Each structure stands twice: as C-alpha cells, then as structure tokens.
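Bumping with the actual sequence this time:
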Amino acid sequence: MPKHGKNYRKAAEAIDPLKLYDIEEGMKLAVASRVAKFDETVDVAMNLGVDPKYSDQMVRGAVTMPHGLGKTVRVAVFCKGDKVAEARDAGADIVGGDDLVDKIKEGFLEFDKAVATPDMMAKVGQIGRILGPRGLMPNAKTGTVTFDLATAVREMKAGRVEFKVDKAGVLHAPLGKVSFGPEKLLDNLKALVDHVVRLKPSAAKGTYLKKVALATTMGPGVKVDALSVRKMLEGAS
C-alpha cells in the first residue's frame, strides 16, 4: 500500500472510517480534509442498486451544475455548413468537420468535451476508438449529439457533468472546487442526485441509492448516510 504524507494522515484522523456522516457534516469534513496546496476538486461516489450488465439497468446522463465546476472547459464541435458559425458564436474552442476528424487521427486531443451534429456521426465514428476510452465520444443520450449546438456548448462551458454508472454499479462525478465552500457544493450535489434519482431504471429493485462517499482530489474519503442525502432532496423539493 502507498504511504500517505503527514497532511493526509492528519486529515484522516479527523474522520471516523466506520461512521456514516450526515450529508451536511460530511461535506464540511470533506472540504476541511483538503491536503494539496492547489484548489482540489470535491468528488462524489454513489453506489446504486442496479446491475449495469443488463442494458435496462444502465444509468447514464448529464446535468448542468448550478454553480459550475470551477474550471475552464475546452469544447470541440464536429459540424459543417452554417453550424460552424453557431458553434463558434456559442463559445466552442475548436470547430471542424472532416478536417478535425483527420487532425484527431494524427494525435490532436487538446479539448475536454466534444459535441457533434447528427450528420457528422458517421465521420466521428471513425475515431471512436480514440475518443471513447477518454470519455470524449459524443452521445445522444447525454445530449452531445445534437443540432442545438448553442445550448450544448453553453451548458458544457457552464459546468455540465456527464455521468455513467460503472460495472460495479458505482457512479463517480465531480461537484466543484474546495474553494466553493460546503453550501455551493451541496447545491451541486442536490442537482446531481436529483437527476440520478429521476433516471432510476424501472427494472432496478430494492434500495436505489445505497452508499455515498465524498472526497477531495488528494484527501481521504468521507462516508455519508445515504438516507440523509435522500432527506436533503426532499427538503429541496
């Protein structure tokens, strides 16, 4: 096992690994447990009561965080014709058609998110093996294959988070920066969880939101009582 530095160990001492914290207390602890000198990201991991090996239990989607994510997002758009100007006007960093596909085949990957118009997907499919493993492949289910480029680009720039449950039924997502403070991070968490709950597959049986944990980029994890997360949603509705 890797050895942790003294800052990590000190932060970990303030957290009871056997306790399930109330969501508000847990968020405060997670923020306070920052270890690095840079502005760390706070992430959430949610264990859902689904079996992703069955297609009717896959949970996948996207949500725009009310307070953004606190970082600059470089957006690439695959389009042609009059859509090129629309993408640029919306703030896209890289815009192109066949030329952009060819550029990526040659190794260009200087962007964080990608959007494509439906008429470009046959071409974009040629670089799926490059974009897919990096989480950059446009997908209609997350709203990144669309003719409404203005909305898609602006949402990504504003802090749009795409999520997909992994093979173990765990969903990971960023909530924003430590510097946001607990209140804004909780607002972002509410938006994410509310959307995830709305996507609950009808085939999923039993408890849907089973386990929740928070952690900064370099800090220790904080286990949160899933019931308090559900109550937070009820209080926000």
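The tokens above came from a reply further down the thread. Strands lie at 41-48, 60-64, 75-78, 94-96, 113-116, 160-164, 170-177, 209-216, 222-224.
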